[in-house]
């Protein structure tokens, strides 16, 4: 019996050794950041990144970036578009006098108003290029039937909005802070 134990212990192991590999690194996500940031564009970020990470990758908020209307803690996923609303900036003459004549709620020709397609009224939607009262009502009807839009390109599902219209309104719409 002792000989059998010595034989088993002294014998070389059979088979190939198992090589342990490091855990795979998750692939980065790519997001598009536009609007009130210093360097709009495409950015690759690690998984589990948040809206704030995308803004920082894009050089932070611009001088007229609206820092109040976003959920900076919202998680991002691959292919997301982060649209940073902009505030209206005062004119050069107003800056010299220290007074601004335009408030963030007043649209001007130099700075378009960003429309939240999840909360906008027919009149607000009607201000968008290529969107008339009929299409504005279709957006509201779609929102009532299907729930809030989760990304801006979901608006392509609305009857009457095609890719050409979407390209004209892409930078003018937002979904706002998710519920």
Defining key terms:
three-stranded mixed sheet; two-stranded parallel sheet; single chain; Ubiquitin-like (UB roll); 2 domains; alpha/beta; 27% helix; DNA polymerase, domain 1; 179 residues
In short:
The protein is an alpha/beta fold and 179 residues long.
Provide a descriptive summary of the structure in words:
The structure is a single chain. The protein has 179 residues and is α/β, with parallel strands linked by helices. The protein folds into two domains: 26-101, Ubiquitin-like (UB roll); 112-179, DNA polymerase, domain 1 (Orthogonal Bundle). The protein has helices spanning 2-10, 51-57, 92-97, 122-126, 133-146, 163-169, and strands spanning 29-35, 41-45, 81-84, 115-116, 173-174. The strands form two sheets. A three-stranded mixed beta sheet has the order 2-1-3, covered by helices on one side. Strand 1 and strand 2 form a beta hairpin. The relative contact order is 0.12. The model is unreliable at 89-110 (pLDDT under 50).
């Amino acid at each position: 019996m002792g000989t059998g134990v010595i034989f088993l212990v002294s014998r070389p192991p059979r088979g190939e050794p198992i090589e342990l590999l490091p855990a795979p690194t998750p692939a980065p996500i790519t997001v598009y950041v536009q609007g009130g940031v210093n360097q709009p564009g495409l950015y690759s970020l690690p998984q589990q990144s948040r809206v704030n990470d995308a803004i920082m990758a894009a050089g932070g908020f611009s001088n007229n970036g609206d820092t109040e209307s976003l959920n900076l803690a919202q998680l991002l996923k691959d292919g997301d578009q982060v649209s940073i609303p902009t505030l209206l900036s005062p004119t050069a003459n107003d800056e010299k006098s220290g007074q601004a004549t335009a408030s963030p709620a007043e649209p001007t020709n130099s700075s378009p108003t960003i429309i939240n397609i999840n909360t906008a009224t027919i009149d607000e939607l009607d201000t968008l290029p290529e969107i008339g009262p009929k299409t504005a009502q279709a957006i509201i009807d779609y929102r009532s039937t299907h729930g809030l839009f989760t990304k801006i390109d979901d608006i392509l599902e609305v009857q009457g909005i095609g890719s050409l219209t979407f390209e004209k309104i892409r930078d003018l719409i937002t979904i706002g802070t998710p519920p």
